[in-house]
């Protein structure tokens, strides 16, 4: 099982510092993508390397904002209505469960839609056309370095060199 680059942000692992600190260790590999760096560490783990001594470091960080589409009043109101349906359904079901009144579901959905559409319309009107698009942001690195504690760095380098060379010829016994 793998953890995403920014997973477990609220959880503290044993042995890790509380405050942000620069990584330590010797570079044993450098990769263009996170997937390649992850594959390298997975290779080390599969070959019984002590991966607790390994760190993946994203270098030359960039915030990439990918534009998804144009934002119009129709999209704003539809998005508000859709989110209101889900929230209203949730509240309505809770009320119906505790009051044994299933009409509360309809009231919850209608109330959620009205509130969310109103809130979405007000929020969009305050932008006054300065942001008429939707986007998704992502933190991306220019490269990903794999570091190892000095006591195991040479072994890690050797193992990752074998990985880079690919599978060797099959030996015949």
Automatic annotation (TrEMBL):
General stress protein 17M-like domain mapped to chain residues: 28-95
Positions of transmembrane segments: 76-98, 104-126
A Pfam family that the UniProt record links to this protein: YflT
Annotated protein name in UniProt: General stress protein 17M-like domain-containing protein
Keywords: Membrane, Transmembrane, Transmembrane helix
Region (Disordered): 1-23
Entry annotated with the keyword Transmembrane: yes
InterPro entries referenced in this protein's UniProt entry, alphabetically: GSP17M-like_dom
């Amino acid at each position: 099982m793998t953890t995403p680059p920014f997973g477990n942000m609220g959880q503290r692992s044993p042995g890790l510092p509380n405050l942000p600190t620069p990584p330590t260790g010797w570079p044993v590999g450098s990769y263009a993508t996170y997937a390649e760096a992850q594959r390298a560490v997975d290779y080390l783990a599969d070959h019984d390397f002590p991966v607790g001594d390994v760190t993946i470091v994203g270098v030359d960080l960039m915030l990439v904002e990918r534009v998804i589409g144009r934002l119009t009043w129709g999209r704003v109101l539809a998005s508000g209505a859709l989110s209101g349906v889900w929230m209203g359904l949730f509240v309505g079901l809770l009320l119906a469960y505790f009051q044994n009144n299933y009409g509360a579901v309809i009231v919850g959905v209608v109330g959620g839609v009205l509130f969310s559409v109103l809130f979405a319309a007000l929020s969009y009107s305050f932008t006054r056309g300065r942001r008429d698009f939707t986007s998704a942001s992502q933190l991306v690195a220019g490269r990903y370095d794999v570091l190892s504690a000095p006591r195991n760095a040479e072994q890690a380098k050797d193992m990752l060199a074998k990985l880079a060379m690919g599978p060797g010829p099959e030996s015949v016994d």
